[in-house]
């Protein structure tokens, strides 16, 4: 077998980006000789998963792959000075590192000098004390020596402070230059991988090779941009792709998948679920224990996937394809890749649920005409005046209704007041709870605004699940009468507000419970 020392280029041609990794496909044309031969291809990323490496020769009946493996080489960087063709930032960083080393050495020397002068001053003061105690008097010499030591200590201390000041400023400047260098230039990889391929060819000639493998440090998430132009809504579907695999993806066919290949699944364990019947006691027959609870109104669609962070695909793997080849550098930053876009007529309403929020929000509704499922993700909201913020788009199946909230209206205000009264009526002492909700709506309009605006107000009333408790909407006490009441207890009004107008909406309902009901 012959080994070619010059590696054959093996570029990335297609990538399937998963939720937390990527499936990379590489293709190239090999000029094979007759017989068994070993080829060296690459370089490739050293992060490639060895057990997922697979190579095949496309449409080659007279050639076969005998062995394929990844060989990694360690080439540590040395503390070499920058070359003449390096950037000015790299030269500046090298110069500052040398200056910092020199300043640190000078600081150490000045610190040692000051320590010696301190010990000299201590010895001199001890000599003065011993001489004065034994009757010696050399005041002139003592003054001269003390002045010389103090002068040298002040001079060297000032030098040390100057060096420390310069060292601190240099450290800050060096940190900023290193950050700029990391952001502007990519360091060469220390660990480089190559593919060693052993093939057996019956005859010489060109043959096409396809090699695939998994690689970590790559992920994607959906992102959207919704533009509202009058009654038309444009929704752009993008993919935010991050990758730090050690090699750039240049002009590759990008596929986005929500498949979780590393997720292990186990069949559910079967356990006994025993149901027993027992007679109710006399106290249980006399008392009906009820409680108020909050229930979320469910819509048609896939059930939420619990325990799986990341992309919400409704429990079924989804695949999206980029329409054109894309390039994603291996810099670890987010890169926006367009996937699809559609424009269609949308209905808009100004909705308010005062029990939850006093804000009036513009809600836009349309159908999903993108041709694929819209995964849950953030959406940038844009309307006539520009960007209006960021919202969240829930999972939406193809053709399913789509709902987006384009922010609140600052020129509307809603104030809510609720009252409750409790009374016992009849011989059976039936409990009646009467609740009254008053909503005050106001609109602050700019000068010259002449159009009326319809605000859809929604309130809710309880829904009883037991016959011992009855809920009745008092339509005669409601002002104005509700436009609709659905089975979930949602009461709706379409309130027309002229410019500068004010309206009051009153909702009244009562809960009637028999005497044996407790907990109401």
Question: Can you summarize this structure?
Answer:
The chain has helices at 88-133, 139-184, 282-286, and strands at 12-17, 22-32, 35-44, 54-58, 63-74, 191-201, 205-215, 218-229, 232-243, 249-257, 288-289, 319-321, 326-328, 335-345, 347-352, 361-367, 377-383, 386-393, 401-408, 412-425, 430-443, 453-460, 469-473, 484-485, 490-497, 502-513, 517-518.
Could you characterize the architecture of this molecule?
This protein is an alpha+beta fold and 520 residues long. The protein folds into four domains: 12-77 and 188-215; 88-184, Helix Hairpins (Orthogonal Bundle); 218-260 and 284-294 and 327-408, no CATH class; 414-518, no CATH class. It has three helices and 27 strands. A hairpin with a 2-residue loop joins strand 17 and strand 18. The longest helix is centred in the first third of the chain and has 46 residues, at 88-133. The protein is extended and about 115 Å long. The N and C termini lie far apart (88 Å).
Looking at this protein, list some descriptive labels.
single chain; 520 residues; alpha+beta; Helix Hairpins; 4 domains; six-stranded mixed sheet; 3 helices
Secondary-structure blueprint:
Blueprint: E1 12-17, E2 22-32, E3 35-44, E4 54-58, E5 63-74, H1 88-133, H2 139-184, E6 191-201, E7 205-215, E8 218-229, E9 232-243, E10 249-257, H3 282-286, E11 288-289, E12 319-321, E13 326-328, E14 335-345, E15 347-352, E16 361-367, E17 377-383, E18 386-393, E19 401-408, E20 412-425, E21 430-443, E22 453-460, E23 469-473, E24 484-485, E25 490-497, E26 502-513, E27 517-518
Parallel strand pairs: 1-10, 8-17, 11-27, 15-22
Antiparallel strand pairs: 1-2, 2-7, 3-6, 4-7, 5-6, 8-9, 9-14, 10-12, 10-13, 15-16, 16-19, 17-18, 20-21, 21-26, 22-25, 23-26, 24-25
Helix pairs in contact: 1-2
